Amino acid sequence: MSKAKGKAKQVKGKLKETTGRATDDKRMEAEGRAEKVEGKAHEAVADAKKKFER
């Protein structure tokens, strides 16, 4: 996964988390937090790959 896709997943997760908080939907809020973490992990992997390619 590319760094851009990881960042997009973080944004999507943030939106989901905020929507869950606004609608008092704890499950959606938790899914959003999980998605943000997943996006950060993908972004970190992309950074690491880029460093080792050099």
TrEMBL record:
Residues 1-13 have a biased composition (Basic residues). Residues 1-54 are annotated as: Disordered. Residues 14-54 have a biased composition (Basic and acidic residues). Residues 3-54 form the CsbD-like domain. InterPro entries: CsbD (IPR008462), YjbJ_sf (IPR036629). Gene3D superfamilies: YjbJ. Belongs to the UPF0337 (CsbD) family. This is Uncharacterized protein YjbJ (UPF0337 family). It comes from Streptomyces netropsis (Streptoverticillium netropsis).
